[in-house]
Amino acid sequence: MEQGNNTQELKIPAHVAIIMDGNGRWAKKRGLPRTVGHAQGAKVVEQILEDADDMGIKYLTVYAFSTENWTRPVTEVKALMNLLRTYMKTSLAKCAKNNVRVRVIGDKSKLDADLQDSIAGLEADTAGNTGIGFQIAINYGGRDEITRAVRKIAAKAAAGEIRPEEITSESISDSLDTAGIPDPDLLIRTCGEQRTSNFLIWQCAYSEFNLRRQRGRTLQKRILNLQSTLITTESADMEDLSGK
Ligand code: FPP
């Protein structure tokens, strides 16, 4: 990594989360069906995973299908599910070669049985890998994840296993799908929308956001951007805000 213009060592974030939108727009611009855009998006994900691993990022989490995406046209939902099906079936060799550990976050119980089986297989077969942790969010929504976590905790309380005052933000984190994974340092949104769209809403409480549209091998650019933001923020004060 390059260094900033001060003496501080630039640090690679441990966990980067990405909202990958713009596939549909990418395809439309080229006169192609949206589903071709999603297939292209899946290829880009593979490249980003390699780049993230090369840079020393320990965890990468991508938003592949949200709890709200079921309302899209049936053909688009089918195409996305088939894309994910193919990924679960074909990526084991690559994960083994690159020492990648896969975890799917989200409510898997609503997915087709064969996809659930492929996910369970890939998770089990890569569980012993010690390299980058790759989280794929499928049928994922932050509010849904928190609701499921609250239900788990409430069931324990009802069974007398915990008292309400023993519930802490740590125990809530430990009940989420991302249990054991550090919160993201950086949240990237690829196509310029300025919202989190229900992605990792608990986990991103302190994350830096990079929601700009950028071209090229943007992961590196965005990490460098994060570094300079952090350094600039350190030297900024209330005078900047008040404009005096
Ligand atoms: C939302 O924006 C994006 C999605 C619903 C799908 C993203 C999924 C992938 C890139 C495939 C993931 C694959 C793997 C292997 C993890 P949109 O593309 O509909 O954007 P737009 O309509 O706003 O342009």
Give short descriptive properties of this protein.
disordered N terminus, Undecaprenyl pyrophosphate synthetase, alpha/beta, binds farnesyl diphosphate, 46% helix, 244 residues
How would you characterize the overall build of this protein?
With 244 residues, the protein is α/β, with parallel strands linked by helices. It has a single domain (12-242), classed as Decaprenyl diphosphate synthase-like (Undecaprenyl pyrophosphate synthetase, 3-Layer(aba) Sandwich), CATH 3.40.1180.10. Helix content is 46%, strand content 14%. It contains 9 helices and 6 strands. It has helices at 23-29, 34-55, 74-90, 92-98, 113-126, 142-158, 169-173, 218-235, 238-242; strands at residues 15-19, 59-66, 101-105, 133-140, 186-189, 208-210. It has a 6-stranded parallel beta sheet with strand order 3-4-2-1-5-6, sandwiched between helices. α5 links the parallel β3 (101-105) and β4 (133-140). α1 (23-29) packs across α2, α2 (34-55) packs parallel to α3 (74-90) and α3 packs parallel to α5 (113-126). Mean pLDDT is 89; it is low at 1-7. The structure holds farnesyl diphosphate.
Short description:
Helix content is 46%, strand content 14%. It has 244 residues and is α/β, with parallel strands linked by helices.
Helix/strand/pairing class, anyone? alpha/beta
What is the H/E string?
EHHEHHEHEHHEEHH
Which oligomerization state do the chains in this entry correspond to? single chain
The amount of helix comes to: 40-55%
Coarse shape: globular
